[in-house]
User: Fold these one by one.
Assistant:
Number 1:
Amino acid sequence: MKGVVLAGGLGTRLYPLTKVTNKHLLPVASKPMIYYPIQSLVDAKINDLLIVTGGKSAGDFLRLLGNGNGFGLKRLNYTYQEGHGGIAAALALAEDFVDGDKMIVILGDNIIGCSISESAKRFSEQDRGARILLKEVPDPQRFGVAEINEDKIIGIVEKPEHPKTNYAVIGVYMYPPDVFDIIRNIEPSSRDELEITDVNNAYIERDALEFDFLPKYWTDAGTFYSIMRASLLVMSKEDRQKLLSEFAINAYD
């Protein structure tokens, strides 16, 4: 099974920082953001990885990550996305790398508080279809939101004004190789992008989308607030308490 980390995009919500670097190279606690999704895949025993990136800072990924030796990998693969066409368009660039295998795709700004190994195992044993992860969140309007009927997802709506549930589709997608056929047949959205929600809804229409609930924390790190939140989440309890205590003291200086 292959692993794909999507680390392109413009990162406009993090301007002006992203005028000079890719957002996935920004720090979350003591590590570059991109380290966390890579480690999630490695911990799930996915050792053949592709980084999809773009923009003016693409070469910085190679300087930072090299051949993946720091993660125990023998090699790390890279490809470049020109412009920005949405998550599904970025994933389409992985077709040759995947080469007919199953894959786990993680968005490069996703910080996950537990192993995805069990979900990866379930996916590897599926005869057909895809699998996604869901997390209950207080602000579902920011995400793709899943509507569930008993043990099935019956629809996903992207950033709904009035969500029917609080279950966000987090940026971990497990796909069979036929996902590339689906991507070729979806239409660009009003944002002129190929939306990953349309890909997932295509699997729902085939009755071929499984899911798991994520038991521990998850956050994206695509805004200034969420980067700070992600940093606090990944710190040890002792370091977090120390930092918050220092903030409280220094606030009066």
Note: Residues 131 and 210 are 4 Å apart (CA to CA).
Number 2:
Amino acid sequence: MVRLGSPRTAGEGPRLGTVRRPPRGVKKEDFATRNYFDVWLPDLAPSAPVVSAALSKPWTSSRWENFSKRYRREMAKPPADRLLSLLALLSKETNFSIGCYCEDESRCHRSLLRELLIEKGAVVN
């Protein structure tokens, strides 16, 4: 799991951008060279209503729990669930990194993605 735009590390593999929107002011052909992502997977990003509810007030434990539950419900729907199953399977054969713009992974959907992938049997470093 990585913060999009941060320097790449050895062996992290392709970066998968699990964000609703690509980076502002960056040309599409520069996403990878500027360390954002190699492939954009907005299907694994939280929906606009879930993000809006999360950003509406200061973070609290109960608000994080609410966000987590809502995001997990979204990821249980067939398109996202199938994509998570595919990534879990691929993780056994190759390295890749999942990223978002959030600075604090512990309060970011990518921490939940880590849990969901592990639940599906993924190899996670």
Note: Residues 2-119 form one domain.
Number 3:
Amino acid sequence: MGLSRLVVEDFRALRAVDIAPSDGVNVVYGENGAGKTSLLEAVFCLGRARSFRGGKIERLVARGRPHFLVRGELATSDGRLTVGVRRGWDGTRVRVSGEEVRSLSTLARLFPVQIINGDCLRLLSDGPRMRRAFLNWTVFHVEPSYGDAWIRFEKVLRQRNAALKTGDARLTEAWTAELGRLSAVIDQARLVCLSGLNEFLNHRLRDWLPEEEIELVYRRGWSKDSDLVSVLSSNRDRELEAGFTLHGPHRADLEIRCGGVDGHQVLSGGQQKLLVIALLLAQIELWRLSGEVNPLLLVDDLPAELDAANRSAVVRAVEALNVQAFLTCIRRDAITLSSGSPKWFHVEHGRYSEVV
């Protein structure tokens, strides 16, 4: 599955955009502020119904306009599928082939998308929450039942936390068994997924950071020597005092270590960028081989992130992934492609044109 047509209307400063991307690599170039990142943001919104920049989705609507619309035609083995995301005064509406979709997880499954940009370094520098989100998205597109298990887990967790907050020990215990069961399912799915992720990551890093000993250390959120129900029962008094659940997959972390130390502390800025890019490319590889649909990769302003040699290495890796990708840069000659049938698009003042 690939994005065969992209239509964008009134999204930030973009004018009416209607392009037919390549199913391989697409390069978007233009001056700063021309609308390169906004196009990637629109594509991302097509898969997640939100921006990778954060903030309120209402701010994506062009000034003075009632709503924005992003619509994509996806080529599938059975024909074509149309996906649309519209945001206006009446909220966000998502349609798939004309039918309204209530669950955003349905949209995400149809259109797996990931972004590589300057903010990705937060995987190393920020706390566990961001790495848990990365881990959850990784497993979501590999294990079909994971999304439902995680949604159910969060509901049970909220119920248990409410009982803890009111000091209701009996009701707390009633939710403990179900929390333990769901946590085991989530933990096992994460472990299986991490095995594949590690394999792809190590293969890449043997070429990119051969001198460094990089490892992913998974902390599941409770003692590895005990089942969660036992841990929760033995810590019930502490939890009642705290008013929330102290252990479980919602407390997990994916530590990214170099020589046994936090990678953020010992690696140079350039090495950190390569490490995070390698991790995200490993995620894409895992999605491509494990999922039912082909993922889409967005890479924003790669020349600003890496020197020429490393930039070329990353571009070659993206080409070798055999997935649809959008790369942005200021000048056309900043990115050199070596294979496939890429398409080039120039943007100026929010207007896009294909360059032959």
Note: The mean pLDDT is 92.
Number 4:
Amino acid sequence: MRLRITVTLAVLCLTGLALASNAAAGDFADDPCSTVVGDNYTCPTATAGAPYAIDIKLKEPWPGCTSMAVSSGVFPPGLSLASEGNIRGTPTAAGSYSFFVTVTWSNQAPCVSQPPSDRKFTINVNPPVQRLIVGTSSLPDANIGQAYTAPALSASGGTVSSWSLASGSLPAGLTLASNGVISGTPTQSGAYGFMVQANGTPNNDTKQLSLFVLAPLDLGLAPAGTAVAAQPAVVNMKLATPFSWGVKGTGGREPYAYSADALPAGITLNADGTITGTPTQAGQTRSTLTVKDVNGTTDTLRVTFTTRALLAFHKTKQPKVGKVGKLYTWRLPVAGASETKIFLVSGRIPPGLELDEETGELTGTPLVPGTFKVKFWALGDAGTQISKTYRIKVQDVNRVTANR
């Protein structure tokens, strides 16, 4: 019995909602389209090019249970009707547009299914209001120190009697004439923002513009683009040692693109102009680096990269000949970019001689004649080590004199 009473009360509640007023379910409200001619309801007038918003409503709204749609006729272009009855948009063409809006009902609980209903509406769209509008949207770049004349500023929708600067300032050296022409010779580079004003009828209009004054494009040394006094620039690096350097463009118009016609093995030119890597081969590389700005303007920098081996024995230099009883001095012919060097020896050096491990000098007074096969080692930075075997001759002074 309790269950039957509960169901009955629920049905009575739903019926009470549907019949809460004298309006039939699905009846359209008279507002906002209240001007009625016959069966046609005229909505508030719209204007082409201006935002428009009204809400078609029902006298007894059932949120979530009804859906509205244009079922026939011609709907104003640029507007749209949401299922809730909201008309929004910006009409794009003047005219008188009549159309039918149909309401459909959901049959899902708690909605009460009703037959569809419709109503005829008319929206009149007036022609756009004539108004003066500045049409110029951009200005060509200028170059510092060069005469500049931009195309005259333009506007539509009215008559311009003069042009003026509403706010901001032009680059130093440039002026805006009353005929809308910006001209002169800029004396300072950079980006400048300002607002121009068209003075005329039926109204005045303003527009925010910008003008970029280019400095000459130049490729210099990073990080600040420092100018290079003489070319080619000389850059030294060490074999098998991480290297970092770089170039930077200034002036022109960013973004920049960097390129190189040649680089040492193991070295890379990055997109930001930095040059990094670890050289893998000793020697000299002549390179031309180029920067190109967004306008296609280029500048170059000639560079000579010299990659020095950390350590290397001279290819041809040989030990000096020693004489018994005579002072002897000979320095191992080792060169290279290593900051530190340590010299070692293996094998039998001539008696009376010794090797200085820090300087690489072999000094002393030979005691016996002969030819001595000796292997020398040189140790440097980053664990670099090289070796070479030499034959050191020591002559007997007495025998040399006797032979004469």
Note: The chain is about 5% helix and 45% strand.
